[in-house]
Amino acid sequence: MLIIGDPPCQLLTVVGNQKGLGDTRDGFPIFIDAVQKLCLDIWLFENVRGILYTNKWYLDETI
User: Fold this and answer.
1) How many CA atoms lie within 13 Å of 31's alpha carbon, on the beta-carbon side?
2) What is the pLDDT at residue 47?
3) Residue 14 CB neighbour total at 10 angstroms
4) 21 touches 56 (CB < 8 A)
5) Cα–Cα distance for residue pair 13/6, rounded to 1 Å
6) How far apart are alpha carbons 11 and 23 in whole angstroms?
7) What's the pLDDT score for residue 16?
8) Domain of 30?
9) Structural domain tally of the chain?
10) Which residues participate in catalysis according to the annotation?
């Protein structure tokens, strides 16, 4: 089984407000929860520019 996710990226993108966990459109925690519940070996998530740099704190808090 494979799951592909693309929650709204406005909360993390460098051209957005970068509110992270404070943004009501945050779908990333739901995506991570689905991956964990389904015990998936393969999953794909769209990379958002800045998620591993400017907003690394967001990944540290949600994973």
Assistant:
1) 20
2) 67
3) 12
4) no
5) 13
6) 6
7) 66
8) 2-62
9) 1
10) 9
